[in-house]
Design brief:
InterPro entries: Ribosomal_bS21_sf. Helices cover about 65% and strands about 0% of the residues. By secondary structure, the chain is an all-alpha fold. The mean pLDDT is about 90. It has one domain (about 15-65). It has three helices and no strands.
Amino acid sequence: MIFLIEIKRKGEERPEILVRRFNREIQQSGVLTLAKKKRYFEKELNRNAKRKSAVRRSVILSSKRGY
């Protein structure tokens, strides 16, 4: 998905106001939330991998407890 956000300078507009307007447009469009979701996306594990990690966790916990 491609977002094209264009902010043009209005006359003698100060750079701080221009940056603030740009940030507001980014927030309203939802670009940042989508980027963060994509950045930390993890594929869902299959059944066998889930089982192996559960066994590994239980072994680690039982060794910590001293059983």
